[in-house]
Each structure stands twice: as C-alpha cells, then as structure tokens.
Amino acid sequence: QVQLVESGGGLVQAGGSLRLSCAASGRTFRRYVMGWFRQAPGKEREFVAAITPSGDSTTYADSVKRRFTISRDNAKNTGYLQMNNLKPEDTAVYYCAAGVAGTYGSWGQGTQVTISS
C-alpha cells in the first residue's frame, strides 16, 4: 500500500477551476490504478475518475465528463484532478485512492471543495 495526501481544495465560485493533487509515498505508486472519489454531505461516496498505472487510459463519471481531467506523474509520485466549469453540486470532500484489480486499498484523508453559486 501507499500513503496518500490530497491538497488543492478550496472555495471557488461556480464556473471556476481547481486542481487537486494527490502525493503518494514510496516507489510503488506507478504500479497502482489511481482514482478520485467524492462525498457530499448526507450522500454516499461516489466515483469521480480513475487512471491506469501507466496513464494511458482514463475513466470518468458521467457527471464530470468534459469538465474534469485526471492525470498522473509517476516520476513525481503524484496524481492530479483538474476541475473546470465547477458547479455547486460538485461541492464535496474529494479523496484520492490507489489500488489494483478494481480494489482501492489506500485512501487519502480528503480535501474539501466548496463551490458557491
């Protein structure tokens, strides 16, 4: 497993942008699928996006397609989530996770994203 630390959250107006970062410890980050999830108050955690270990393939939830971009820099042990055209419904705590075979075994502590209308 790896240790993950998210950063980059904050308060922005609707239509604005944020870039979240996920810093991973250890040299094994490049072996893991990386995902981003979010949890809004009173709601269950939901999938946002994922990227393969090499970065050659990405997957997105329908609600964020064409607005969010997931990427990674394995040389820096860091993953990213670029979020554009943010909407109030994107308000949530965002978590990064790392895993294999569809199971995420490592999670960060989360970073708050708040979008004002």
Characterise this structure.
This protein has no helices and 11 strands. Strands 2, 4, 5, 6, 9, 10 and 11 form a 7-stranded mixed sheet that branches. Strands 1-3-8-7 form a 4-stranded antiparallel sheet, with no helix packed on it. By secondary structure, it is mainly beta.
Distance from N terminus to C terminus (CA atoms, Å) equals 38 Å
Strand proportion, as a percent range, falls in over 45%
Judged by helices, strands and strand pairing, the structural class is: mainly beta
Low-confidence stretches: none
The outline comes out as globular
CA radius of gyration is 13 Å
How many runs of DSSP E, i.e. beta strands? Answer: 11
Question: Major β-sheet, in short?
Answer: 7 strands, mixed
Oligomer: single chain
Give the overall average pLDDT.
96
Q: How many DSSP helices?
A: 0
Task: Please provide the ordered H/E string of secondary-structure elements.
Answer: EEEEEEEEEEE
Helix content: under 10%
